[in-house]
Amino acid sequence: MSDTSSLAESSKDLSENNLVPTLNSLITSLFLPFELESPQDLTPSLLLAILESILESRLPIAPSIRESRTTPAKIEAMKIFLGVLESDVLQMDVGLSDVDPRKLAAGSWDEVVFVGELLCWLGKKRGILVASDEVEEDFSQSMLLRPEPSGFSHITDVPRHPRVASPSTRSSATNTNLSMHSSHTTSNTSVGPPSHYSSTQSFLLPPRSPISSPEPHQPRCIHEVEDPSFLFPSDEEDLNSEHSDNDLSTERPDISHANASFCDCSTTEPLGRGRPIRYTGWINEVDDDAELESFTSSNDADHDHTPSKNHRTRGLYGGNGHSTPRLPSTTSRRTITKHTSPTEHTLALMNERARLLSELAKLKQAKRS
């Protein structure tokens, strides 16, 4: 029992002297307006903010849980936090399954210290933290006590990271070096990536250069937006905005994955390759004469193969069909390539719109029958 007490005391002294300055350096590098005095200042919301800032993406947590300040909501958020950190980010067993999310949400010492060490190590591997002699510490040799197994933990045969050489801990040591040494030291944290990636590819991104001046964070990928559904209207909304009675759906090309090569974030599934989007250069000028000529030729072809205008009007609006046509009848048909007045051009466009609405009504009638 005395050995356990001495280990706990040495763990507390070690954390207060080294862990808190390292966490404050990490928070400062992420431009978060906080300063810790103790590891127990790591509240659930601050833990989420640190991990999301490191990953530069939001965790899949419902807005109701984020906004709530109740204990069950904090526990649920910590469950997702621990699962994403171990399964998606680290992709190796370092003992997070033994961390009780209830104790972590309540700020229990052992839980917050262990999670704080992992966040500092992750920040170092991502190049956010710069190694220094004062805060340099090898967390693979940490003497922190392992948290007691909780109701949320499960027993597996996978070896766990040895946090203390306790007689009750029978799991073998993993070959994981969670060190905070300088970046030129060879890292042993490369883990097996998903099956669709190369077996030699590391999960963690290469370290980025230290940040010298604060810059506003700008989302680089579509998945960094909390709700990307508002960026592109759906097919139904797009149709209803133009024709309130149009029930037909049109297929629009998938542009959410177009030109996905600009995103350097790690993903679990390969992105689909759509039509590339060009962001530079100039678009060609519109040829008004060619557009009008194309419209006129299609309009003449429709007049040759469709009934009279009165028939189309009667089919669309009902009645006896004796209404005055929109365009005055002429004895000789003329090819309208350039309209002589804006009014004549407007009437031609309205005539084309009436024809399209008539065809749409016929399609709807055929679908109902």
From TrEMBL:
Signal peptide range: none
Region Disordered, annotated ranges: 150-255, 295-342
Sequence ranges of Low complexity compositional bias: 174-190, 323-334
Compositionally biased residues, Basic and acidic residues: 217-226, 240-255
Protein known as: DUF5745 domain-containing protein
